[in-house]
Amino acid sequence: MIDLSAVKGSRFVVLGLARSGLAAARALKAAGMHFTAWDDNAARRQALAAEGVRIVDPAGIDWSGVAGLVMSPGIPHSFPKPHPAAAAAKAAGVPLIGDIELLALSGSKARFVGITGTNGKSTTTALIGHILRTAGVDCEIGGNLGPAALDFRPLGADGVYVLEMSSFQLELVPSLRFDVAVWLNITPDHIDRHGDLAGYIAAKRHIFDNQRSTDVAVVGVDDEASQAEALRLATGRKTIGITVKGGTPAGVSVDAGILRDAGDGATVDLRGIKTLPGAHNWQNAAAAWAACRALGLSARLVEQGLRSYPGLAHRQERVAVVGDIVYINDSKATNADATDKALAAYDTIYWIVGGTAKAEGIAPLSRWFPRVVHAFLVGASSEPFAATLEGRVPYTRSGDLRTALDQAHAMAQRERRAGAVVLLSPACASYDQWASFEARGDAFRAMARALPGAMVETGAAA
Predict the structure, then answer these.
(1) 40 close to 86: Cβ distance less than 8 angstroms
(2) Angle 20-142-150 from CA coordinates, rounded to 5°
(3) Do 298 and 329 fall within a single domain?
(4) Which of 48, 135, 371, 431 would you label with 211, given CA atoms 20 to 30 Å apart?
(5) For residues 408 and 349, what is the distance between their CA atoms, to the nearest angstrom?
């Protein structure tokens, strides 16, 4: 747990008592701080009250003298409608902050690496952390991924905090400075929380707010919004452009799977790394390479970390092999954009798809339909997805995951196509049949590993 005694004497209000808010409340309590907490969920309030935390409805709070409203990032403070406590705090001039801002205020001398972007944040965060750990660097990895920031171990000046930063979290860190800030890519997302694409981009930009001229910005330059951001940053600090679409003179590029660092001419062949398949993962690898080199690691150590990366669960996770057919759990792909990355990575696909569909459905994936041997439709989206696939991809209305896997397995083993995969990449949320994408992916993994003749594989990518 992070020691918050550096801010002792300040008064805080904690709003939201799930993962990050709960960690904040416990860290403040451990430091002997004066604070109150609230959650709209009665069970959470009661659970924390049992730990001796003072629970107070924000409607009755006198905001004068409050140093900050520590908000869980999922609670809206602008769009679509601010939480009443956030509106009251703003009106009183009280800063809205998050748990990661409290980490910044703790006085740690460790270095901070932040990773944001629409896609690839989790893989890049985990990859950077893995590379640092294999190189012997003391680090903690979390934020939007994994443990809450205030549950980290305190690190000394030789340590590194590696933080996945969502757009929600970046709006709540007014003083945090990243020694290395990574911006991967931008596609429209979370518009309901930010009002429009410009608002979403503005939230992402906070990752660079407090950087100094000696700090480093690593920016993917393969989309227009990110290209514009790289140009905006170019004169204020060292900016390293990363691309998988063509060389960049002063950056890191990947061409047909070969990573090249223009800074020192180092090259790495990424094509044999099973846990980093496809161009989207090559972008993740290029960003991790640039960030870790900026932190002082040698090319040799970074390459060793890339090659030993075990991957993340539910992100193109290779869970089993039966014969020559690989079974892949990509349950984290809850929208078409995420599934696009998986379909791009494989040439011969038995595709398990469906669930609670997003507005775009699977029509944006049509360029990859020729790679799909057969689609197995599950969940509430089955009929609209069948309509999209009609006349373009053979499909079966499987109904549920168990049936879909059995049918895909039987077909794939019967046809024995070279390089084929059975891919769960739903392009949908899970809530029609599963409590979470993790539950869905865990079930798929267990089912695949229970197939006759299955050999267990480990490793993932996102």
Answers:
(1) no
(2) 45
(3) no
(4) 135
(5) 10
In angstroms, the CA 45 to CA 328 distance is 40
Q: How far is CA 432 from the centre of its chain?
A: 23
Place of tokens 């196509």: 417
**How far, in Å, CA of 154 to CA of 164, rounded?**
18
The Cα–Cα gap between 318 and 371 comes to 19
β-pair partners for 399: 378
Neighbours of 284 (CB within 10 A): 33
Q: Which of 71, 100, 129 is the last residue of a domain?
A: 100
User: Do 391 and 441 fall into the same domain?
Assistant: yes
* Angular region, 167: left φ>0, alpha ψ -120 to 50, beta rest: alpha
**Predicted model pTM:** 0.86
- Name the 3-class secondary structure at 269: strand
Asked if 383 contacts 325 with a C-beta cutoff of 8 angstroms, the reply is no
Domain boundary residue, one of 70, 100, 130: 100
Instruction: Give the containing element (helix H, strand E) for 45.
Output: helix 42-49
CA distance 117 to 242: 13
Domain span at 207:
108-307
- Rounded to the nearest 5 percent, the helix, strand and coil shares of the chain are 35, 20, 40
Shortest CA distance to 322 belongs to which of 395, 396, 420? 420
The Cα 140–Cα 149 span in angstroms is 9
Residue 462 is predicted with a pLDDT of 40
Total domains present in the chain = 3
Query: For residue range 64-95, what is the model confidence (pLDDT) as tens digits?
Result: 999 999 999 989 999 889 999 999 999 999 99
